[in-house]
Amino acid sequence: MNSSLNLTRYLFILLNGILICQSCQSNQKLNWGDYQSWIASQESGLNKTLQIEGFNFNLQFIPAAYSAINDMHNTGIAKSAFDSLKMNYKNSFMFLVKVSREDQSSPLKTGVSNRLEYEYRLDQLSYKMMDYLLLQADDKLVRPILAETQELEFGSTLSILVAFPTDEIKNSLVMQDQIDFVFVDPVWGLDDQRFTFDSQDLIADPLIALN
Fold first, then answer.
1. Torsion sign, CA atoms 132, 160, 49, 207
2. What is the predicted pLDDT for the residue at 175?
3. Calpha distance 50→123 (Å, rounded)
4. Where are the domains of the chain?
5. What is the CATH code of the structural domain delimited by 31-203?
């Protein structure tokens, strides 16, 4: 009986210790470098990758805090503006999609056999991507308000900055455990690519040292 009580007491103390450590960690401020590394890591739940038929798809969720601090570093905006910048960026949910080829060839030119096909692909990837990207939570579908393709004709990586309206997503984040980002292939003949995010990862807001 005593050994059972001692074991119960030990487990109780251990559990409380774990909870206290987690609480302490959540109150620790990350510096800018650590924060950048954290959001780009698989452990954060904010960076997803898929490989299919020689293509690499990478999807990075961009938190409002990251965008605000990035602006401050790039433009010299005062630290006192952080909260207002962050609130502005919270009006949209932003993602960066990157598409590349395992053999380092251009995704824009892969499978293209003539100039007409090339121009069609260039048009779809430059101006029509809002038709091919969406967020799905249960049966709710949300279309983007921005899909900006960057440096399409240069290099071996296709980058697309995507923004969704926060007002149409925030209720789903509360009601649903997971949200899917769906990439409907516009030109390559691949299956739709689906990236699943835990809702809690998307609304996590760690403390960041503004230095």
1. negative
2. 79
3. 25
4. 1-28, 31-203
5. 2.60.40
